[in-house]
Design goal:
It contains two helices and seven strands. It has helices spanning about 1-15, 60-70; strands spanning about 30, 40, 55-60, 75, 80-90, 95-100, 105-110. About 25% of the residues lie in helices and about 25% in strands. The radius of gyration is 19 Å and the shape is globular. The chain is of the alpha+beta class.
């Protein structure tokens, strides 16, 4: 058991010695966190409530993705996983996060992302 632990530690040390100096960690996925489980958050075309509900851009299958969000009034459910690409101060003074997946990008108020 001790040998196994020592082997794991040694493997970790050796593997980190050979990482490039400019290596960056892959960010952990975030998720949508509402105040009421089961509820949804509106995604917007820009940072702030003055921007229309909608998507900023869509990737593969763009029309299908946009149609799905349109049918759901451009909302995303509590607990959905998203990536955070950037943040900005919104027109309403709140912090907003540019979130999405490889298929879509939109803005969500920062306190709904955890």
């Amino acid at each position: 058991m001790v040998w196994r632990s020592l082997f794991l530690v040694a493997s970790l040390i050796v593997s980190t010695l050979f990482l490039p100096l400019n290596a960056t960690a892959i960010p952990a996925p975030h998720r949508i966190c509402t105040r009421a489980p089961g509820s949804q958050v509106t995604v917007r075309t820009g940072p702030g409530t003055s921007h229309a509900p909608g998507l900023v851009m869509v990737g593969s299958g763009g029309k299908k993705v946009d149609d799905f969000f349109r049918r759901n009034n451009y909302t995303i459910a509590d607990g959905e996983q998203v990536s955070v690409f950037s943040s900005a101060r919104g027109t309403d003074g709140q912090t907003w996060k540019k979130v999405g997946t490889n298929q879509w990008v939109a803005w969500v108020r920062g306190d709904f992302v955890c």
